[in-house]
Amino acid sequence: MLASPHSRRLRLFGGFTVLAIIATYIHIRPSWRQTTYEYAADLSSSVSNYFGREQMYNNTLYQQGTEGTVVQYHNFSNPCANFPDTDGVLLVMKTGATEAFDKVPTHLLTSLQCLPDFLIFSDMEQQIGKYHIYDVLAGVEEKAKAHNDDFDLYRDQKDCPVSQKTCLDAREEGHRAWNLDKYKFLPMMEQTWRMRPGRDWYIFAEADTYVFWANVVYWLRTQSGLNPKERVYLGSRSFIGGTPFAHGGSGYILSGTLLRHLIDHHPGIVQQYNIKGAHECCGDLMLAQALEEYENVKIRQAWPMFNGEKPSTLPYGPGHWCEPILTMHHMNAEEISNVWQFEQTRKTDRTLLIKDLYETLIAPNMQVKRQDWDNLSDDVCYINPDPAAQARADDHRKRRQKKESDMTDTEKVAWKSPENCARVCEEEDVPDEEDLIWGGSRQKIVPREPNSGEPSPALALDTEKAEDSDASDAAMREQWHRAMNEKKKSRTCFQYTWHDEQCCTAKSFKLGAPKAKSGNDKSRWVSGWDLKGINDWIDAMGECTQVAWKKLEA
């Protein structure tokens, strides 16, 4: 049967259409494969990262400046994969009912999830999820509580029919909580030994203390030279009334032998010190008194590894750089989470040093100057000599004033403005090689004046010891570099803070914290950092080829 002309035209049109589609496909196929497929692959990868088994997430610590220290993406699904074996080591955490729900949950979400066992003591029995908090004061005899105002908070907490936060504001109850806290230390020793006897080491920490477990376990087992069968008491040493004690907030360690001896061999010690507590300021001091009185054991100094500061207040610089860090204090929930995240996402598993905290958590936030900020500079101060200005300064700053007879011309006017204050540290800056003029009849090295090409006779004095008329240019450069490297290492001014005609500088560098804004320029807080001096010091220090483990002092 013959097809109609109309039908033949439709068939021809259909054939041409199919050929056109095939030709178009052949033409665009290479570029389609190259772009569309890769885009789809990236999209698929992103989807699997967030919804797949790997749980790869963006690391919020990864930013400009931290590329070499932390990974950009991390699998957070197995946080305990690299956690150390803590067999024989027990953590004992102390908290209070007014703060427990603010501070403890973050620990439970971070490092405590990796500990097979631990104890949490407070001044009230509480429950956070599946974790129990024990009332360490429940066994304190009534004669120690009766007519003792220090226990008023303890009684008020028990009378609260709703949440503690509803009845009691932790900020307003801080003083009462502090007074009650001192009674927890000796009962905590007794209950710890009764509930978890036989451990090698007992680590005691506050709810705002962060423990670097990998460092602690490695140090105890391989670097400390300590024997848990001996009576050992160590931490960050403080003094009150001439008595040395381990600062509770920094964390401290007792060997199992010492804890057993203290509790089993001295019945009645807890009751004695509960009564004594009414006349003492601090529980960590009373613990030291009991250990010396009954065990003849004094604290062994382990600072700066056990540290009372946190990343933003650590005094980075000499003595706080190549040293490993074991604990930090005054850590809020966000800071605890950040440091845990840093430990999780580090690119290396070597011993974590203080310098590592600076490079990842602090350095990216450093800048030349911040308004309404206190970077905690207080080593050397320059205060307006006017009696009224002197009267406004606090005693600590007045004690840190440099004698006018010892001041340079720059230091004498440092109190006048933040800019003047900044120049105190800038005077210690070492010129860079590209700012120097090399050569001359005696091969002198003469620094140029900043922002000009003219030689600076004043700066040339710093390089006189590098002059050598007989030396080759290369040798002279090397000699100059050695001299300048030593000068960079020995600098004593890294940063400043200016406020109310008071200029103070620091021999270390810290980030610090915000201050309340002021409409008066004179009373406004201004902080600054000599970034060139800081970076010069870091470059001169080089890599920490040896870990500076603390040699324990008796």
Automatic annotation (TrEMBL):
Residues 387-413, 442-470 are annotated as: Disordered. The keyword Membrane applies. Gene3D superfamilies: 3.90.550.50. Keywords: Membrane, Signal-anchor, Transmembrane, Transmembrane helix. It is a single-pass type II membrane protein. GO terms for cellular component: membrane. It is found in: Membrane. It comes from Neoarthrinium moseri. Residues 403-413 have a biased composition (Basic and acidic residues). This is Glycosyltransferase family 31 protein. Belongs to the glycosyltransferase 31 family. Beta3-Gal-T subfamily. The keyword Transmembrane applies. InterPro entries: C1GALT1/C1GALT1_chp1. Signal peptide: none annotated. The chain crosses the membrane at residues 12-28.
